[in-house]
Amino acid sequence: MVISAPPAVAPPVAHVPASVAAANPAPHGWATYTVRDGDTLIGIATRFRTTVGVLAARNDIRSPHHIMTGSTLSVPRTSAARSTPRGGTASAVHVVRSGDTLIGIAAKYRVPLSSVLKANHLRAGAFIYPGQKVRVRGAAASATAARSAAKGTHYTVRPGDTLGIIAIRHRTSVAAIARASGISTRSLLQVGQKLTVRGRTGKASTRASVPDTFNGVKYPRTVAEAAARNRATLARRSVPSRSETRAMIIRTAHRHGVDPRLALAIAYQESGWSQRAVSPANAVGVMQVIPEAGRWASQLAGRRLDLLRTQDNITAGVVMLRALGRSTHRTEDAVGAYYQGLGALQKHGMYSDTKLYVRNVMHLRTTM
Fold first, then answer.
1. Which of 57-61, 102-106, 115-119, 360-364 is the least confident region?
2. The domain defined by 18-76 carries CATH number 3.10.350.10
3. pLDDT tens digits for 181-226?
4. Is residue 78 within 8 Å of residue 49, measured between CB atoms?
5. Positive or negative CA dihedral for 17, 22, 24, 27?
6. For 165, what's the count of Cα atoms within 13 Å in the CB-facing half-sphere?
């Protein structure tokens, strides 16, 4: 599972010549904008009737192609854009939960991180603890955000879950779950942890004693039972820690000429860098490779790969990524092929869940 969809294009607005924007970039002053999932700098520039160059210079952005969800930008104020709603600034008190971060709280309430820091007399790297009360002042704070979160499904993390798997199952994105749950997109999940998920499919179906359904697809009993056996085998084995696994992914990617950030992003999307993850489809380990794909990967590697061994599993995923990259014209298509299969991608294009997968991976890639 590999790469992300093309950035969304903002709706057309009146064109502002670059020369005009450069001479008078903010005739009505400046406002603060919080970057949302799917935003691009060119889309934000279009929305606020300015140019990428003006935004990059104002916000000291060196790489216009990479902006982070939850970060804040200074943008020109327009007649259609206000920093606060009519009637004043709403406020709320957020009670810190385990896994919360200041940037996550700011993103949840759609306010600038600087606003949260100022309201609570905190510094950017300040430590927060469960039970602490954080005051939030801003445009979308208070009851509106609270009601929005309340409408979400409360999902309990199960063994083998990752943010990527949960996002695809609920037809949403990693960033959306992280924002609603007040955690980072790179947070490591704990079994029993509660997440807020606002997706289109409602609650995930309850798994049987031997899970045989994933992402709406029911797999044959033989496949589900093979997955259960592999899950039990890996539960008994000693496996590398996540930090050790991360280092193994980087080394393997370098060895085979694959972008390490891409390999890390796919592995994190697939398993959270956990060799013990096994899906009902019998996708095994760090790179979530099914046995059939493992046989193909063995041919690519020139030796038999044991998917239950961490290094062989990583090698399988990386050499498949290399092959898919050579068979497609875009990284996004290689990532989509990793998830959907190259033949199906070429025949049908990306399915809706593939587009979500690609989008999630491409976002994670920027954080690696």
1. 102-106
2. yes
3. 777 776 667 767 788 887 554 444 333 345 666 555 667 888 888 9
4. yes
5. positive
6. 27
**Largest pairwise CA distance in the chain:** 68
Q: Is 307:316 a contact under the CB 8 Å cutoff?
A: yes
Which tokens sit at 161?
Answer: 């879950």
According to CATH, the topology of domain 90-148 is: Membrane-bound Lytic Murein Transglycosylase D; Chain A (3.10.350)
Q: Give the domain 213-367 fold.
A: Lysozyme (1.10.530)
Where are the extended beta strands (E) located within the chain? 30-34, 72-76, 90-95, 133-138, 153-156, 194-197, 213-214, 217-218
Query: Could you state, in order of their start, the residue ranges of all structural domains in the chain?
Result: 18-76, 90-148, 151-197, 213-367
The fold adopted by the segment(s) 151-197 is: Membrane-bound Lytic Murein Transglycosylase D; Chain A (3.10.350)
Region of 17 on the Ramachandran plot (φ > 0 left; ψ -120 to 50 alpha; else beta): beta
For the stretch 158-181, pLDDT in tens is: 766 777 778 767 777 777 787 787
Q: Measured between alpha carbons, how far is 282 from 293 in angstroms, rounded to an integer?
A: 11
Using alpha carbons, list the distances in angstroms from residue 134 to 32, 137, 142. 21, 10, 12
Report the alpha-carbon angle 262-264-265, nearest 5: 65
